[in-house]
Amino acid sequence: MRKGVMGMANNWKKVKINFKTVKLSSFIEPIKKTYSEFNDEKYSLVFGVSNTNGICITGKEASKDISKYIILEEDCFVFNPYRINVGSIGINDKKLKGCVSPAYVVFKTNNKMNPHFLYYYLKSEYGNHLINWYGNRGGVRNALRYNDLCQIDIPNIDLPTQLVLLKNIQNCNGTLENLRHESENQSTLLTKLRQAIIQEAIEGKLTTSWRKENPVRKGDPDYDAEALLEKIKTEKEKLIKEGKIKKEKNLSEINPEEIPFELPKGWVWTRLGEIGIVNPRNCLDDNLEISFSPMNLISEKYGVNPKFEVKTWKEVKKGFTHFAENDIAIAKITPCFENSKAGVFKHLKNKYGAGTTELHILRPIIVLSDYVYVNVKTKKFLNEGSKLMTGAVGQKRVPVDYFSNYLIPLPPLAEQHAIVERVEKLLSMVDELEKQVAERKEQSEQLMQAVLREAFEGKSLAKEKV
Questions:
Q1: φ, ψ at 290 (rounded to 5°)
Q2: Which site from 25, 109, 275, 363 is most exposed, i.e. has the minimal number of CB atoms within 10 Å?
Q3: Can you give the residue ranges of every domain in the chain?
């Protein structure tokens, strides 16, 4: 027995064990029965383990030969020795019939240990601490083998007492599970609210009152989208004549069947390629310091501008995507596109930059960048683009033609500012609500850990006796 096990200087939460312990080896045994020994179709279904769902169908392709796969028994434990430190362990308490890869560790408890009591312990902060302690391989990739598992210190509690404590734990967990479900439901509703705000923004529903106070003024781009579109076309033709941009191929005519909803008065339909330059190139001095954005510095979260490193132009001018201040970027490769990695480049070093080749860029002409950004964050943009991706699995990309020809509603310029302001205000309120939900979820997790601590330290029993 030992007390006061302390952790090593690694990145896991260290806890002090203040109760008498025994080694787990006295309470478990490995399971090594293979599929070849059973040769029963009922066990041919292959399972994996995740840190959120426990034993589950992972969707990953199994080996064609599963003869050496290990059979699942009722209430057995399964874990990935390389990922148990992040919670990838499950218990077969649903009587699943199947097998798992021989790369997994599979074991069961004997008649001196309740499997559910042990499961709660291994998922507690004590269990996590000891899994990391005994799985630390000193510089080699950490892994918890079966022999390491046997060394884990568990509470020295007899089976009848385990059952009493387990009942208390499960009662509390049931209550907290209801709170967790409520938090998840709230998170789902807030995600839907985000999309509803964005969709209503591009339909003009957020600025109905603004239009009443600011009626259409024909010929004024600030209050008439037709005039704005004409001004954009004139500016684009001027840039082509001056040789600053190349003439692009004509975009598709807008068909009535494409139009998804009726526009407010003073708005027009157009295509992204009409209101800007798609995938522009920069011509800069080689020694100019500019911003460089790899994919990992581009966020999926709404309103987060891409971050960047500083490089010289000669380092990145070849083989990378070019952009400039206020350009809009979308990731074009899977799964970054589907995850909505996108942003508006702001506060760039010397107002120019380059980055990952897996981007499509729009350099808007006159139009407000932040308004265009609202459009590329809609579910419609993502869903339609996902259907048109081409290329091999894992390397699929959104074609540039989809980006250029994407249909967007164009409000007058002044209303674009009003829309962006309204969206930012409403989404900041959603951010605050999401923060509150996350805090409540964290509090419920902390409460569960407190219940487990009391159980394993014998405090909950002491309270019952009192």
A1: -135, 175
A2: 25
A3: 1-155, 157-215+413-466, 217-411
